[in-house]
DNA sequence: TGCCTGACCACAG
DNA sequence: ACTGTGGCCAGGC
């Protein structure tokens, strides 16, 4: 029985984010059937450190690293993205649309 | 126990 | 076309 909460589903999707790709909170929320629950996706990321979830690949709808403040360092999130070949400028992903990974389409 | 906050997005005015 | 507010679920005080 799938006693999986919306919370847990977020991790399942986030873990499936391919290398060198990024997605948005809303995209995950919408895939789960709750486009308005985007806030929960972000809140789930708070426990992402206890999971194997690449929270650094998850940004907001505008491609801005809104959650970078929750990482260890100040620009650690940016470092991780650049390490995957994703350019980040002023806390914003360059060519976000190009690297955007939509779970609704990919999954 | 109850109210408020929180890594956002969609809808309405 | 833009700005403002509501809403979703869960956790913290």
UniProtKB/TrEMBL annotation:
Keyword field: DNA damage, Methyltransferase, Transferase
Keyword Transferase appears in the UniProt entry: yes
Domain annotation Methylated-DNA-[protein]-cysteine S-methyltransferase DNA binding: ranges: 6-86
One example of a Gene Ontology biological process annotation: DNA repair
A molecular function GO annotation: methyltransferase activity
Pfam families from the UniProt entry: DNA_binding_1 (PF01035)
InterPro entries reported for this sequence: ATL_DNA_repair (IPR052520), MethylDNA_cys_MeTrfase_DNA-bd (IPR014048), MethylDNA_cys_MeTrfase_DNAb (IPR036217), WH-like_DNA-bd_sf (IPR036388)
Cross-referenced CDD domains: ATase (cd06445)
Protein name as catalogued: Methylated-DNA--protein-cysteine methyltransferase
Species whose genome carries this gene: Flagellimonas marinaquae
